[in-house]
């Protein structure tokens, strides 16, 4: 899908305020409501807009410990990776799972848990029990300096 300046503006505004109504969005990007809504629907149908979500404060939910966990696998086969990826997808504490290069690890997980006891339970009770996991190295986040969900859409 070719994006023009208006499409990019729509994406920028919606990333910053997914609850904006169509009239306000149209005003902000300089369109009338009908063409604006058509463009939003086209962006959704193309798969460029994948959904709308609320951002929630983890600490206010009691999830005060964030960890980055590097996982090493014993075999580098599609089946082994698929098994690991399926296993971590069902863990609600896993915010991100990235297949990485340039490290001794194969994956980096971003986790959020209540406390160290919760982390230990997740690590020993679930992560290390996934078939093929041979190494786990954890780092704990002291401060989240930058946290974005808005992608740069400027042309």
Number of helices, counting only DSSP H or I runs of 4 residues or more:
5
Cα(first) to Cα(last) distance is: 14 Å
By CATH reckoning, the class of the largest domain would read Alpha Beta
CATH level-3 fold name of the largest domain: Alpha-Beta Plaits
Strand content: 15-25%
The radius of gyration computed from the alpha-carbon positions, rounded to a whole number of angstroms, is 20 Å
* N to C succession of SSEs: HHHEHEEHE
Low-confidence stretches: none
Q: Find the structural class using helix and strand composition.
A: alpha+beta
- Strand sequence of the main sheet, in spatial order? 2-3-1-4
The chain-level mean pLDDT equals 96
CATH architecture of the largest domain: 2-Layer Sandwich
Overall number of structural domains: 2
Estimated helix fraction? 25-40%
Mass-distribution shape? elongated
CATH superfamily of the largest domain: Lrp/AsnC effector binding domain/regulation of amino acid metabolism (RAM) domain
What is the strand tally?
4
Largest sheet: 4 strands, antiparallel
Protein name: Lrp/AsnC family transcriptional regulator
Pfam families: AsnC_trans_reg (PF01037), HTH_24 (PF13412)
Domain HTH asnC-type: 3-64
Organism: Roseateles oligotrophus
């Amino acid at each position: 899908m070719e994006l023009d300046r208006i499409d990019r503006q729509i994406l920028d505004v919606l990333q910053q305020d997914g609850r904006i109504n169509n009239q306000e969005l149209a005003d902000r990007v300089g369109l009338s409501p009908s063409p604006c809504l058509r463009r939003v629907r086209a962006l959704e149908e193309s798969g460029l807009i994948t959904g709308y979500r609320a951002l929630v404060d983890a600490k206010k939910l009691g999830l005060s410990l964030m960890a980055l966990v590097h996982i090493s696998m014993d075999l580098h086969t599609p089946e082994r990776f698929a098994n690991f990826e399926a296993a971590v997808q069902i863990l609600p504490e896993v915010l991100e799972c990235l297949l990485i290069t340039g490290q001794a690890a194969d994956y980096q997980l971003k986790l959020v848990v209540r406390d160290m006891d919760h982390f230990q339970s997740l690590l020993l009770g679930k992560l290390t029990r996934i078939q093929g996991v041979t190494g786990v190295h954890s780092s704990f986040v002291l401060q989240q300096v930058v946290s974005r969900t808005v992608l740069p859409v400027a042309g």
